[in-house]
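Field reference: sequence -> structure
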Amino acid sequence: MWTDSTSAFVRRSVSPPHAGLRAEVVEGVLRPGADIAYDGPPVPGLEQHIWVLEGTVEVTVQGVVHELHAGDCMRFRLWGPSRFRCPGPDSVRYAIVIVPT
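Structure field:
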């Protein structure tokens, strides 16, 4: 588990490590008002699946904002900047499946 007190982001690796497998499941929690921006993916074309478990999150990919609510799932390949923002009023909890290409 990793916590960034500045951005109010909690990240927990859910899937156990395995050298022969590529996908990873991560749980993320953002408090209301939390806003995290990334300049780009660690690997161009990184595949991600985001499944919102509780609350609402705004995910920006390719300059387009997607508002996701509990039960929603979005998948994409990431080539450039991205952003995760919790508009509130409650925290958001989501699972991300990350699949390096």
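Note: Residues 2-99 form a domain with the Jelly Rolls fold (CATH 2.60.120.10).
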